[in-house]
């Protein structure tokens, strides 16, 4: 990583953003008995785990963590999931990633659920960069950040020996 990096969110601010998103999800789903939180590996899953931990404390409904591993460089949808897709039928799915940049990762994440009738599908990102190539909007974002294309948003979560943070590089 280059030497020049600007701290955007520290670990306390990251947790505050996740807490706020959890309350928004609670408000949107207060009448549900269960929601499924699908984290996109690797960092989206870290955000999803933290979101689930907060929801487990504050929500009357249960939540279950699912993981999705996407081959992001592929030109077609190729995903590995840790659940049977039929388990999602008529459920609320919350699809989670760390950064929304072009929208390709979330679009591929949507693709996992295309053949299943869902109650609703919501998206969560910690940082929305506002550089979408795909016509996507996220339902819940920790923060929106206007950047230039050359800049990179680096999310550090659960890395041994490093403080959780979001950097603009």
Observed structural traits:
single chain; 169 residues; alpha/beta; six-stranded mixed sheet; three-stranded antiparallel sheet; 3 helices; 25% helix
**How would the global form be characterised?**
globular
Strand arrangement within the widest β-sheet reads: 4-3-2-5-6-7
Instruction: Count up the helices.
Output: 3
Distance between the termini: 8 Å
Secondary-structure element order, as H and E? EHEHEEEHEEEE
Fraction in beta strands: 25-35%
Q: What oligomeric state do the depicted chains represent?
A: single chain
Which stretches are low in confidence, meaning pLDDT under 50 for 5 or more residues running?
none
**For the CA atoms, what is the radius of gyration?**
16 Å
Mean of residue pLDDT values: 93
Profile the largest sheet. Answer: 6 strands, mixed
Strand elements, count: 9
Keywords: Glycosyltransferase, Transferase
InterPro entries: PRTase-like (IPR029057), PRTase_dom (IPR000836), PyrR_bifunctional (IPR050137)
GO molecular function: glycosyltransferase activity
Protein name: Phosphoribosyltransferase
What would your notes on this structure say?
With 169 residues, this protein is of the alpha/beta class. The chain has 3 helices and 9 strands. The protein has a 6-stranded mixed sheet with strand order 4-3-2-5-6-7, sandwiched between helices. A 3-stranded antiparallel sheet has the order 1-9-8. Helix 3 (104-112) links the parallel strand 5 and strand 6. Helix 1 (11-28) packs across helix 2. The radius of gyration is 16 Å and the shape is globular.
């Amino acid at each position: 990583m280059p030497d020049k990096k600007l701290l955007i969110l520290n670990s306390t601010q990251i947790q505050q953003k996740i807490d706020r998103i959890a309350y928004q999800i609670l408000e949107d789903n207060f009448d549900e008995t269960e929601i499924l939180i699908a984290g996109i590996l690797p960092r989206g899953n870290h955000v999803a785990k933290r979101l689930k931990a907060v929801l487990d404390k504050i929500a009357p409904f249960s939540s279950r963590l699912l993981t999705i591993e996407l081959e992001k460089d592929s030109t077609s949808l190729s995903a590995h999931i840790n659940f049977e897709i039929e388990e999602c039928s008529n459920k609320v799915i919350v699809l989670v990633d760390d950064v929304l940049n072009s929208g390709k990762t979330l679009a591929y994440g949507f693709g996992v659920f295309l053949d299943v009738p869902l109650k609703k599908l919501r998206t969560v990102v910690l940082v929305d960069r506002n550089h979408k190539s795909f016509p996507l909007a996220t339902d819940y974002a920790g923060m929106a950040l206007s950047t230039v294309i050359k800049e990179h948003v680096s999310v550090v979560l659960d890395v041994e020996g490093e403080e959780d943070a979001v950097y603009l590089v």
